[in-house]
């Protein structure tokens, strides 16, 4: 268990930045050791979150939101811009970005997501978050559903800091900042909740945005034939955040080509520094002679 000083705190003001329906549930609420307690931090009202708390987000992605997201993240796949398929990276962002906005002291170090089937525009989706603390490590297990069943299963893990990381990113204006604001708008979250955390400039790329970049790059590198994204694994470690205005670069290295999937090693760099690394597993594209896998999600 972490100390009370670093106990995650959900501000009611921050919750107001979400335009999707957001619920927090304490399964031990009537016991002697509840997982949530009302309180104040930094002059704001809210509640402290403990081990075992559950969070729920209900949302619906419109096609216009999906196109805006694809434009912001550089995904040129026509099934997202002209078709009816929600970008897989957008499903990841609907999981990861709320954690970054709600919990500035949560140092996200690893992301593991497995896609079961693609989500579609216009249909209600429900994301269920389970917050757990195991031997000093925070693990957030998430499942996302639509009416057809399970869309994705994800684990985000990391640690809790005593205070949010110091904000030293320069003040920025122009296209880079507009791109990130458009990204937040597509996800129906007020960008000021992240970019101006605590009333101070926080002009760095969210990890959720960084995690969205490999999908678009795979579509470009594979000439739009990336197939169905099966899983994405990224390790961020304790890397410093990249200021908005810099240009993170996605490096892909196809590996272990098989008839059932291809493994693509991923590195995201900025300058000489490797910001994160991991891999994606992608089912090959459909061919007339092959059994039809789920629609492409790349």
Account of the protein in words:
With 298 residues, the chain is of the alpha+beta class. Helix 2 (63-73) packs antiparallel against helix 5 and helix 4 (88-102) runs antiparallel to helix 7. The chain has one domain: Thiol Ester Dehydrase, Chain A, CATH 3.10.129. It starts with 8 loop residues before the first strand and ends in a 15-residue tail after the last strand. Mean pLDDT is 84; it is low at 287-296. The chain has helices at residues 12-15, 63-73, 78-81, 88-102, 175-186, 192-195, 207-221; strands at 9-11, 21-25, 36-41, 44-49, 54-60, 106-115, 124-134, 137-146, 149-160, 228-235, 249-255, 262-270, 273-283. The strands form 2 sheets. Strands 2-5-7-8-9-6-10-13-12-11 form a 10-stranded antiparallel β-sheet, covered by helices on one side. The protein has a 3-stranded antiparallel β-sheet with strand order 1-4-3. The protein is globular. It contains 7 helices and 13 strands. A hairpin with a 2-residue loop joins strand 7 (124-134) and strand 8.
């Amino acid at each position: 268990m972490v100390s009370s000083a670093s106990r995650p705190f959900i501000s009611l003001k921050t919750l107001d930045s979400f335009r999707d329906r957001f619920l927090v549930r304490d399964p031990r609420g009537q016991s002697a050791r509840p997982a949530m307690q009302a309180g104040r931090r930094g002059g704001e009202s809210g509640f402290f979150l403990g081990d075992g708390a559950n969070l729920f987000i209900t949302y619906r992605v419109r096609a216009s939101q999906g196109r805006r997201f694809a434009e912001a993240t550089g995904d040129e796949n026509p099934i997202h811009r002209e078709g009816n398929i929600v970008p897989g990276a957008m499903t990841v962002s609907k999981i990861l970005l709320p954690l970054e906005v709600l919990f500035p002291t949560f140092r996200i170090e690893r992301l593991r997501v497995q896609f079961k089937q693609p989500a579609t525009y216009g249909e209600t989706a429900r994301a269920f978050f389970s917050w757990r603390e195991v031997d000093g490590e925070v693990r957030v297990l998430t499942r996302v559903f639509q009416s057809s069943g399970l869309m994705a299963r994800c684990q985000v893990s990391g640690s809790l800091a005593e205070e949010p990381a110091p904000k030293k990113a320069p003040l920025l204006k122009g296209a880079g900042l507009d791109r990130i604001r458009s990204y937040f708008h597509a996800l129906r979250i007020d960008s000021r909740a992240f970019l101006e955390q605590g009333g101070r400039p926080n002009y760095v790329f969210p990890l959720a945005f960084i995690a969205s970049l490999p999908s678009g790059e795979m579509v470009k590198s594979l000439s739009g034939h990336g197939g169905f994204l099966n899983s994405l694994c990224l390790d961020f470690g304790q890397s410093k955040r990249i200021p908005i205005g810099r240009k993170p670069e996605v490096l892909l290295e196809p590996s272990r080509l098989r008839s059932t999937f291809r493994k693509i090693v991923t590195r995201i760099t900025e300058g000489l520094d490797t910001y994160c690394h991991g891999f994606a597993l992608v089912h090959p594209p459909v061919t007339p002679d092959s059994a039809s896998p789920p629609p492409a999600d790349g």
